[in-house]
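Sample 1 of the test manifest.
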Amino acid sequence: MALVNLTGKETGTWVHIGTETTIEDGAVVAAPLAQLVDADESFFKAVGAVGAVLATDADWRAVAPLANKLSFVVINFPSFSDGRGFSLAVRLRKDLGFRGEIRATGHTIPDQAMHLLRSGFDSVETPDAREEAFKAAVKRYQVFYQSDFTGRTSLAHARHARAEERKAS
Amino acid sequence: MYAYDQYDHALVNARVGEFRDQVNRRLSGELTEEEFRPLRLMNGLYLQLHAYMLRVAIPYGTLSANQMRRLAHIARTYDKGYGHFTTRQNVQFNWPKLVDTPDILQELADVEMHAIQTSGNCIRNVTTDQFAGAAGDEVADPRPYAELLRQWSTFHPEFSFLPRKFKIAITAAKEDRAAVKWHDIGLILKQNDAGETGFEVIVGGGMGRTPVIGKTIRDFLPEADLLSYMEAILRVYNEQGRRDNKYKARIKILVEDLGAEEYARQTEAEWQAIRNNPIDVPAEEAARIRAFFAPPRLEVLSDDVAEVDDLARQNFLFAAWVRNNTGKHKVPGHVHVTISLKPHGGIPGDATDAQMDLVADLADQYSQGEIRVSHAQNLILPHVAKRDLPALWKTLDAAGLGAANQGLLTDIIACPGLDYCALANARSIPIAQAITSRFDDMKRLMDIGPLKIKISGCINACGHHHAGHIGILGVDRRGEENYQLLLGGSGAEDASKAAILGPGFGEEGIVDAVEKVVAVYLGEREDGEEFLATYRRLGPAPFKEAVYGAR
């Protein structure tokens, strides 16, 4: 598997754990959301940093109580066509104000690189064979019709930005 | 018409480059057909029964003469000399070679056209009234809003992988010619008591195997809030729409499951949370787009034109054409003209390269270089001076484009059916041809009056049979093509679902059945009563008796 960095921000490394895993003190771990919902304070004290692994059908509201404890989130696409993953990332950024790394795993295709980046993902895990295509796809488009989570405003706003700047000055 | 700026050009050209790369990877074997499929579908390239089919977007059905010439050129150079205009106001080419498709897309991009989002589970081409900007009965031209929606929905980062395809239609007129209540989202442009412009927002309409008429979730949305409100509707749908069964994945099912009130409540809550984000465009941008749709400068002329009246007295077919195929324009002395693509015995919606070139020339000569495509699969010259009608009609008639049947029984909507489509259970085109041949008599058609027949070759309902005054649905019955007869549908402001009348028929039988239904209407109608009104007054019983009684 290759890790494609979409935003250029630093990407993390972590170990995936289950309910039976023994956790080493200070380890950086990724755990399923349900396990984190049930975890007590001692768990969060023991680990170094923790991230949640979310299915695309996860309810973003269920993440809310945990949001300030999470360093990163992994959203796992069962199929590239399951577009709920995009809305979930948008919810984390927009409604929870989550600023940590959001990573896509599972089945995505290179042609979704820009969709991922612009919905708030930082990185994507993909088979090695797709790494180059993902990297090329991020560079293909320069302007977009929508404001997005890379901080870019829509073309509609950009077209008139200079006029607005003039007004402001 | 909207004209691309450098950014619009850059986006569409980047898309062509991307697709050329994908096609090369497929041709070299780097991509399997399975991997290539979602990529080609995002560019409107289907694999049909016999060949690839390329669906080209005609945003809100508006074309310039030069764009039409380019379509003619593509039909001639890369296809078999014809194109097919669709119910989504788009055009399809049925025989392109895969290796040529990147060149075709480049030819389109050069005239500000594309095939983006003409398939796939994304927001499809936004459709509107084919007479927009010309019709006498509209509040304002709906196309600036359609263009705004086109831009907002193009490559949307969040809404390009929806549970299912998503269709938006806008009307601004009293008479709904865009079938807005049958769309995932229908928008009716209106003015409130304060004189402000906004939209009635309807969600959850749709055809397919579960026909549903949309429900209003907001009576008045200020025009400046359009995109943020659309985003709220789409987010609720993307998150909660069903993904376990593609036949239950459209928004209509979610709206039914939640209830329209709950859908409205969730939309409203999300909209309140996002309406101040930079989603809606600045007023300057709305004004920039609107300026492209400024009404053409037409000279105010008299509506009484002696040459038209004289020719109409001499020539019944011309008189019928003026009556059926032209309509009231905003500017006195002008009309909008519908060029019927429904010659009796012909294929609904098809046009040859020569016909497309001719329509382009006529648009330049008589209609400010503008052309429209209607969801009923006809072409429109929106701005024609009445005094030009005799010359225009003679030229059209000589090219096989003079059929005077707009809105009449032979103005049939039909899907491509089993002649082309891999999903179809039965052929649609030959049924349309058989019906129009059977009723090839303009006097008889004029006597019957407005009557919409819509034919689908399978339950997916691309031929809109649910909304037909007479709907015909082709099914597969133990390996035989069989046609069900439905009555009483409407796609207009009085939208209604057609109901199945009884057991289906073979190819001959369905044409006979249509004839019997029409005979009941002619016998039972009251003075000036149209077919749909008579059916609604009488109900199905007398039609049933006439069609099945002798069995």
